[in-house]
Design goal:
Helices cover about 80% and strands about 5% of the residues. The chain is mainly α and about 190 residues long. A 3-stranded antiparallel beta sheet has the order 1-3-2. A hairpin with a 5-residue loop joins strand 2 and strand 3. The longest helix is centred in the N-terminal third of the chain and has 55 residues. The chain is elongated.
Length: about 190
């Protein structure tokens, strides 16, 4: 058995050595696919979380109301405890409604931003803010959340948070321009 496992392992290593380009490309595609799954997760989980929150809020609040009425009419500590428990569960389920609606809103803004950006490699954050009617800080906060959730795979903000870059090429151009600016400033200080 040990020799068979060694042969299988050696065969797999040789296969990987022969087809390393294929594995590299497939690994990259899997990486892109998994990052797209994060967006899909929010697209799906937002409505599900909100729907669950609505159902749970309705059920828990009705139960809490019934327990409260029974507490008033029948008395007893059991109904007080149950009314309090179902009241807390109602509050917790309301947070699911809020969190689900926030996810839905973020995904909708992502689609809105991508329509506005189009096929450009970069865009001014102020332009996004102007076209969406949102504050600059809100757009920056949205873009940061979207980058954290890998909605924009290569998205980056500049240091001043005034330009959003979507491609590696535009980011490299930005880095070169920043380096040139620093070099000019260093020369001006010396001269």
């Amino acid at each position: 058995i040990g020799a068979d496992l060694t042969n299988i392992f050696a065969d797999n290593v040789n296969r990987i050595k022969k087809n390393w380009k294929y594995f590299l490309v497939m690994g990259g595609l899997l990486s892109v696919a998994s990052s797209q799954c994060l967006l899909t997760t929010d697209v799906i989980s937002g409505p599900l979380q909100m729907g669950w929150g609505i159902l749970a809020t309705c059920g828990f609040s009705i139960t809490a109301l019934v327990m409260f009425i029974l507490m008033l009419t029948e008395g007893g500590t059991v109904f007080i405890v149950l009314a309090a428990v179902f009241g807390l569960l109602t509050v917790f389920s309301i947070t699911d409604i809020v969190r689900g609606s926030r996810k839905i809103a973020l995904v909708n803004r992502f689609y809105w931003y991508t329509r506005l950006i189009g096929d450009r490699g970069y865009i001014a954050v102020d332009e996004l803010a102007l076209q969406t009617g949102r504050q600059h800080e809100d757009v920056v906060r949205d873009l940061m959340k979207m980058m954290k959730k890998h909605m924009f795979l290569q998205g980056r903000l500049d240091h001043a948070q005034s330009t959003f870059m979507l491609t590696q090429e535009s980011y490299q151009q930005y880095l070169e321009a920043e380096q040139n600016r620093r070099n000019r400033e260093a020369l001006e200080k010396k001269g």
